[in-house]
Amino acid sequence: MELVCPAGSLPALEAAVDNGADAAYIGFSDETNARNFGGLNFNDKNALRALDRIRSRGKKLFVAINTYAKPVSFSRWQAAVDRAAGLNADAVILADIGLMGYAAEKHPDLALHLSVQASATSAPALEFYRQQFRIRRAVLPRVLSLKQVQQLTSASRVELEVFGFGSLCIMAEGRCHLSSYVTGESPNQNGVCSPARAVEWRNTASGLETRLNDVLIDRFDAHENAGYPTLCKGRFMVDGKRQHALEEPTSLNSMALLPELKAAGIQAIKLEGRQRSPAYVAQVVRTWREAIDEVLKRGEDFSVKGRWRETLAKNSEGKQTTLGAYDRPWQ
Amino acid sequence: MLAVRRSISRMGYRFGCKLLPMLPSWPGEVAFIKMLNTRLSEELQEGLFDFLDNQVLEVTVTDLGIRLRVSKHNQYFVRAPGGRPADSTISANIADFLAIASGREDPDTLFFQRRLCLGGQTEIGLTVKNRLDALDRSRIPQWSQRWLEVIAAELAVVAH
């Protein structure tokens, strides 16, 4: 099972490799990737350095170009694919069907991974992408239960990667337009759930308030944990009660399911967090490396160690970690 | 031995908390900005901090009462003009700032736990965080990195 780790900067990439990543995924410094924040990601010079570090350690480098191209600037997304191919990256992670067509035709030797943003949840969908674009791997959306993941692995003819750990969102991957409702920008096309220029944190007498484009989306009491300032995790008045109407700030942690995922034939585990620092990457990657090694050694006798749980809980968004949809019996 | 060290650290920290708020902030600010200009000269040349041009970033070390106001002008960090309100603010206690600087803790983690606070224009604070995360730590002399780690570890115990 391959451990695929996030890197928003060169030091984060080094932290990933030093702590046991099999592969690191990066993005370029623009809206062609879904973590388009100021100061984050790789220009051409740093991407080359990243490749150099990866190659010297015998690991893999993936480039996420996982937003949807705008009709007027499709060439920017094409250029990103060309840059990744020029780098000789081990794969590009794509969501846009037009871009996949371009990559498959222009760079037939470049491995394609279907991004979680493409939201392919069925065997026929995966097969379509394989036949049309020769995708090698698909990252499964986080809406699937464990049983559905197991069914897919037996039917799929491409490698499957699932999310192991990281901030959870409302999980309408590739289809979420919530933030564009208040900011005009969506993660799908602009690469950010909440553009930082539209975010405001303000300390008031009634607590820490966060606003997105002047719309109040949450207010935290003194001892409450804060979350990312996204509309889906805001608290709103519903039926006279202030509550998380859509999603609570929380992090996915599927470590307890590692034996089942391995038995099902999942080829790779992805960790979320290109927006996080090298300190997060080091702690989370080391923890998952140890856990995967333990699963490979012990198989079904595997159990999650207390200190692993503590490290992951500490680095989580929100107060809790959850199995997310993996554990939704109604599915 | 450890108990002696801890008690010296605790005394030093308490002394700092009492004394530093009584001192003027400009000598610290001048030294801080000089250090930034020396350490980040390469990044300044590359334009990686141009987003701070004529903006005021205010860094507050809450427990020590230290307030550092930084701006940028003509390829250099400069002291921000007094009286002008900050465009962006970052505050935390000294232990948490050093935990971030030494790579012990992730800033987002501290932010979720309300130990690191951002105010004003979020984009400036976020970009500063990301630019500092991306710095090549191998350029920091080994001894100074080691000292930072030791002090950060010590303060993580005594300053909470």
TrEMBL record, chain A:
<keyword id="KW-0831">Ubiquinone biosynthesis</keyword>
<feature type="binding site">
    <location>
        <position position="232"/>
    </location>
    <ligand>
        <name>[4Fe-4S] cluster</name>
    </ligand>
</feature>
<dbReference type="Pfam" id="PF01136">
    <property type="entry name" value="Peptidase_U32"/>
</dbReference>
<comment type="function">
    <text>Required for O(2)-independent ubiquinone (coenzyme Q) biosynthesis. Together with UbiV, is essential for the C6-hydroxylation reaction in the oxygen-independent ubiquinone biosynthesis pathway.</text>
</comment>
<keyword id="KW-0408">Iron</keyword>
<keyword id="KW-0004">4Fe-4S</keyword>
<comment type="similarity">
    <text>Belongs to the peptidase U32 family. UbiU subfamily.</text>
</comment>
<protein>
    <recommendedName>
        <fullName>Ubiquinone biosynthesis protein UbiU</fullName>
    </recommendedName>
</protein>
<comment type="subunit">
    <text>Forms a heterodimer with UbiV.</text>
</comment>
<dbReference type="InterPro" id="IPR001539">
    <property type="entry name" value="Peptidase_U32"/>
</dbReference>
<feature type="binding site">
    <location>
        <position position="193"/>
    </location>
    <ligand>
        <name>[4Fe-4S] cluster</name>
    </ligand>
</feature>
<keyword id="KW-0479">Metal-binding</keyword>
<keyword id="KW-0411">Iron-sulfur</keyword>
<comment type="pathway">
    <text>Cofactor biosynthesis; ubiquinone biosynthesis.</text>
</comment>
<feature type="binding site">
    <location>
        <position position="169"/>
    </location>
    <ligand>
        <name>[4Fe-4S] cluster</name>
    </ligand>
</feature>
<dbReference type="InterPro" id="IPR051454">
    <property type="entry name" value="RNA/ubiquinone_mod_enzymes"/>
</dbReference>
<dbReference type="InterPro" id="IPR043692">
    <property type="entry name" value="UbiU"/>
</dbReference>
<feature type="binding site">
    <location>
        <position position="176"/>
    </location>
    <ligand>
        <name>[4Fe-4S] cluster</name>
    </ligand>
</feature>
Automatic annotation (TrEMBL), chain B:
<feature type="domain" description="SCP2">
    <location>
        <begin position="37"/>
        <end position="132"/>
    </location>
</feature>
<dbReference type="InterPro" id="IPR036527">
    <property type="entry name" value="SCP2_sterol-bd_dom_sf"/>
</dbReference>
<protein>
    <submittedName>
        <fullName>SCP2 domain-containing protein</fullName>
    </submittedName>
</protein>
<dbReference type="Pfam" id="PF02036">
    <property type="entry name" value="SCP2"/>
</dbReference>
<dbReference type="InterPro" id="IPR003033">
    <property type="entry name" value="SCP2_sterol-bd_dom"/>
</dbReference>
